[in-house]
Description:
Layout: H1 2-18, H2 32-44, H3 49-64, H4 68-79, H5 86-98, H6 102-111, H7 115-123, H8 129-143, H9 151-164, E1 171-174, H10 181-190, H11 199-206, E2 211-217, E3 227-234, H12 242-245, E4 259-267, H13 278-292, E5 298-301, E6 303-304, H14 308-317, H15 326-331, H16 344-364, H17 375-382, E7 386-391, H18 398-404, E8 408-412, H19 418-428, E9 431-434, H20 435-438, E10 448-451
Helix pairs in contact: 1-3, 2-3, 2-4, 3-8, 5-6, 7-9
Amino acid sequence: MNTSFFSELLQSIADRGRALILRERRAPAGQRSTDLVELCEALLSGRGEASGVALANEVLADYAALTIGPRIAFFEALATTFGHDRARIDAAIAAWRESPSDQTAAELHRASEPRRLELFRRLNLAPGGTAALVRMREQLLAAMDRRDDLGVVDNDFVHLFSSWFNRGFLVLRRIDWSTPALILEKIIRYEAVHQIRDWDDLRRRIDLPDRRCYAFFHPALVDNPLIFVEVALTRGIPAAIAPILSDKREVVEPERATTAAFYSITNCQRGLAGVSFGHFLIKQVVEEVSREMPRIGSFVTLSPAPNFAEWLDGERMKEASLALDADDRAALGALDRAQWWLKPELIETIREPLLRAAAWYFLRARNDRGWPLDAVARFHLGNGARLERLDWPADASERALQQSYGLMVNYLYDLDYIEQNHETYAQQRAVVAAGAVSRLVRVPAREVVPVAG
């Protein structure tokens, strides 16, 4: 109710301010990026509050009407025209050197900001401004596939969004069958790990006694989830996704469950990529489930391994692979056969060589910065989870077969060791792994920290 009231108030201010702005209509749509820059300059010039809100509203409306070419031209203007004010920086540096004080230091701080940061803040005053800026960054990320020079603009978006979407503003809500249909439709649409086929499939995931779904929301993005996690209450650590998603499975009574398995975590807003709040979601859901069901003793994930197949294919093509010996390379040749996942004899031929390769991949494969190659692993290990178990074959969906040859992974969130594991990973870049995984491959101690398991 409060959010609705303030949205209506802002809209009223914008409507009244619009009446104060008298100007001629601008160029045709194809040329509007230049005119949009002029509007942005006017917004930064420091008009009154009402006209400022109206201008911000008009800038965002005109931006939304841009086609791809003018939109990229606008991003170029954000990178250059609305960059640093060098004259102001020079003056602030000179003032600081002449008379170091809190006042001159504050001016130096303000001068060092690119002008686009203040532009974004003023645009955020418009009704729906936050949502519009998140969409703007989503389009910027798409443009950056071919335009690295726009990265300076993206850095400023991340800087602001990290503050605007910090944990203090986020609200955790449980998603169930009583949740408004508008939100449920978005859960179906956004689900990115295991497709929700229809409303019946959704109901099985959120409305049965052994299923939970939680999402983070932000007051500025009403009824629009930022990230959500689907949880299965089970009697052990799950080793495959099909039994969790099956419509014929046996429902586990919550009081008999021993494990909470996070089997799908979906970021809903691409415009917020790189703004980290997923780890807050997992930790708070662990607290919520622990409070509701104290008998739950294990918190694990059943996670995809989206980069594994590409890495393994690369190793199989090498004449001398550190990860694969000749025998394992020969055995893994069965992966090239049609529908190998339906043939038990081929699965048994592949199993041990593939698990050895997977252990090497998770424990030793690194990117250029020295972190684990697998993106999902980086997320969970960085949150303080432990690499608990490799599951294969665990997912026979078409996407999983293409991305990981059906491999899935359990990461364990041990509440007593989360902080210790996080520090080990952050400071040493070491992978904390269960003994059953570390024994599959010989790894230097500095690269893997084995634990009992």
